[in-house]
């Protein structure tokens, strides 16, 4: 005796089971609710990027005008206020007159001349304070309102940590020029300071690029990435960073003005007496001829590797990636020409700054190419980027 169905419960054998509509996740739902936060954070990082690029240029001017030792103390807070009276200026000038740089290089300098170099150094430090403040206000604001996307709290905190360390490295660099009989800051400390600035710029660039895509798109793009080209881009990035450090060593001892000839250094391929200083290791930091020679050789190596990476990138199936490395190759050529012209004209102020700005552009382009090799943009079968 079978069970009879209850009245009204009969169902057609053709009726689909579970016809009740269920909520389905809409495309892009993984990022919904924080799109605005990602856009705002990206804008904040772009502002920091511009400020860091500007401070690199101002730092270059500070070095080229020998302004770095004009402020003889590290006062992160009180130092934000410049001298406001004649007595304040007299006190600052008197402190500078106690330095070896003044006594052996700038003796007899007028107050007006001192004020010129003072404003360059003060402006450089003030920009550093502004960068720190912009980071702190942005980070605290996004964190307190819980608008930072999942997984981004520590990366964004890292940016602030690097900025803080950079401030300490800046004083560590300046302090070296205020000790003993030195006329300038230690070149290796200058290289460390500039290297940190480019590292911060690189981190900002990577984060800006990554936040420019939805998290779902990033995950999908990585599966379509080109590991070989990404590794080649990493090699190029590393060589470019070393070349930037070598450029700082050149600037630190004014080695760019030592041999205004090219392709030879004076009358030969090698500079004369490249290892005259003792102990030998000092020559790699303090001998103008040897430091400039190493910078030149690294430039040739960077250019050669850049050509190899560019040829590798030309085989990429992704239009955006190929275009990115075309830009890298073009900037490499421009930067090399700028370097040669800078040497031939004994590193005039304008050319030296332009060459440094070229390094910033090249650095960012290499990072962009490397990013696209790992996270290529989606494109149609016809090669049009979507």
UniProtKB/TrEMBL annotation:
Cofactor or coenzyme needed: heme b
EC assignment: 1.17.99.9
Keyword presence, Cell membrane: yes
Protein's pathway: Porphyrin-containing compound metabolism; heme A biosynthesis; heme A from heme O: step 1/1
Keywords, in A-Z order: Cell membrane, Heme biosynthesis, Iron, Membrane, Metal-binding, Oxidoreductase, Transmembrane, Transmembrane helix
Catalyses which reaction(s): Fe(II)-heme o + 2 A + H2O = Fe(II)-heme a + 2 AH2
Topology term for the membrane: Multi-pass membrane protein
Subunit structure: Interacts with CtaB.
PANTHER family: CYTOCHROME C OXIDASE ASSEMBLY PROTEIN COX15, CYTOCHROME C OXIDASE ASSEMBLY PROTEIN COX15 HOMOLOG
Organism: Flavimaricola marinus
Superkingdom in the source lineage: Bacteria
UniProt xrefs under Pfam families: COX15-CtaA
GO cellular component: plasma membrane
Family affiliation: Belongs to the COX15/CtaA family. Type 2 subfamily.
Keyword Transmembrane: yes
Top enzyme category: oxidoreductase
Role according to the record: Catalyzes the conversion of heme O to heme A by two successive hydroxylations of the methyl group at C8. The first hydroxylation forms heme I, the second hydroxylation results in an unstable dihydroxymethyl group, which spontaneously dehydrates, resulting in the formyl group of heme A.
Protein name: Heme A synthase
Binding residues for heme: 295, 355
TM spans (from-to): 43-62, 127-145, 152-174, 186-209, 229-253, 293-311, 323-347, 353-373
Subcellular location: Cell membrane; Membrane
């Amino acid at each position: 005796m079978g069970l009879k169905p209850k009245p009204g419960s009969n169902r057609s054998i053709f009726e689909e089971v579970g016809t009740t509509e269920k909520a389905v996740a809409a495309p892009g739902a993984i990022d919904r609710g924080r799109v605005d936060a990602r856009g705002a954070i990206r804008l904040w990082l772009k502002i920091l990027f511009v400020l860091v690029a500007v401070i690199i240029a101002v730092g270059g001017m500070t070095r080229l005008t020998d302004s770095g030792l004009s402020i003889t103390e590290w006062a992160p807070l009180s130092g934000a206020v410049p001298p406001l009276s004649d007595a304040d200026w007299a006190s600052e000038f008197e402190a500078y007159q106690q330095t070896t740089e003044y006594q052996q290089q700038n003796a007899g300098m007028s107050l007006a001349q001192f004020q010129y170099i003072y404003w360059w150094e003060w402006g450089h430090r003030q920009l550093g304070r502004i960068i720190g403040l912009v980071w702190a206000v942005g980070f605290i604001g996004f964190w307190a309102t819980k608008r930072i996307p999942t997984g981004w709290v520590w990366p964004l905190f890292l940016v602030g940590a690097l900025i803080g360390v950079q401030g300490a490295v800046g004083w560590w660099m300046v302090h070296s020029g205020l000790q003993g009989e030195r006329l300038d800051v230690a070149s290796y400390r200058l290289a460390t300071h500039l290297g940190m600035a480019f590292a911060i710029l690189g981190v900002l660039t990577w984060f800006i690029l990554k936040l420019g895509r939805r998290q779902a798109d990033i995950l999908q793009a990585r599966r379509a990435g080109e590991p070989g080209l990404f590794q080649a881009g990493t090699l190029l990035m590393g060589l470019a960073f070393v070349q930037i450090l070598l450029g700082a060593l050149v600037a630190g001892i004014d080695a760019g003005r030592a041999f205004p000839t090219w392709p030879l250094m004076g009358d030969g391929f090698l500079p004369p007496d490249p290892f005259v200083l003792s102990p030998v290791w000092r020559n790699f930091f303090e001998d103008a001829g040897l430091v400039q020679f190493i910078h030149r050789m690294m430039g040739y190596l960077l250019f050669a590797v850049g050509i190899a990476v560019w040829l590798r990138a030309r085989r990429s199936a992704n239009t955006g990636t190929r275009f990115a490395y075309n830009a890298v190759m073009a900037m490499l050529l421009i930067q090399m020409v700028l370097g040669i012209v800078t040497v031939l004209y004994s590193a005039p102020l304008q050319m030296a700054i332009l060459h440094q700005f070229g390094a910033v552009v090249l650095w960012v382009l290499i990072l962009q190419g490397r990013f696209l090799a790992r996270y290529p943009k989606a494109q149609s079968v016809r090669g049009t980027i979507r």
